[in-house]
Amino acid sequence: MNTVIGLIAGSLRKESFSKKIAWALIDMAPEGFEFKIISIEDLPVYNQDFDDYNNVPESYVKFREEIRSIEGVIFITPEHNRSVPAALKNAIDIGSRPSGKSVWNGKPGAVFSNSPGNLSAFGANHHLRQSLVFLNIPTMQQPEVYLPHINKMLDENGNLNDKDTKDFLQKAVDAYIEWFKKNK
Ligand code: FNR
């Protein structure tokens, strides 16, 4: 059986660059591993009242189940106003609750950030890491993955066509798998 690693893109946008990176990563999984995209699209904004057993939205149940079923997670995040996009933070919060029942605990992680500009969503990358520390997601430190000018790295069909970026991502994936094996 393959070890399943979740890929979570931090954007709801149909033509999201982050989603396109996630699709490109699927083919980079080494033997024995499967990379599976986990959607954060249908998650209502977290409200602590939903922790009540009778109130919990069906989409929360499904999302938490999906996170439970993966063994590690790679976040592919853009940046909104120098921080983590609200949709991604929302998904993280949903997975962290009810208190004491977080589905994130101990799953080795990585953060790959990207932007059309040249700062590569550095702010989002590091704000996200702050939450991952609290959630006990041991997160790969090296290589750091910052992808600038991501809009220029994709062709008209949305495929990642820049060889250097692909090679770098493959190296980052390989390093993540090593990290995963040591920290699972
Ligand atoms: C942005 N964008 C952006 N980019 C960046 O590098 N730093 C930032 O702080 C922001 N802030 C920001 C706020 C909001 C509300 C939006 C909608 C956008 C631009 C962002 O990088 C661009 O829209 C990306 O294409 C978003 O990622 P996806 O959806 O392509 O994955």
TrEMBL record:
All residue ranges annotated as the NADPH-dependent FMN reductase-like domain in the record: 5-150
GO molecular function: FMN binding; oxidoreductase activity
Cellular component, GO annotation: cytosol
Pfam families for this protein: FMN_red
Region forming the signal peptide: none
SUPFAM superfamilies: Flavoproteins (SSF52218)
Entries under InterPro entries matching the protein: Flavoprotein-like_sf, FMN_Rdtase-like_dom, NAD(P)H-dep_reductase
Protein name per Swiss-Prot or TrEMBL: NAD(P)H-dependent oxidoreductase
Organism from which the protein derives: Chryseobacterium lactis
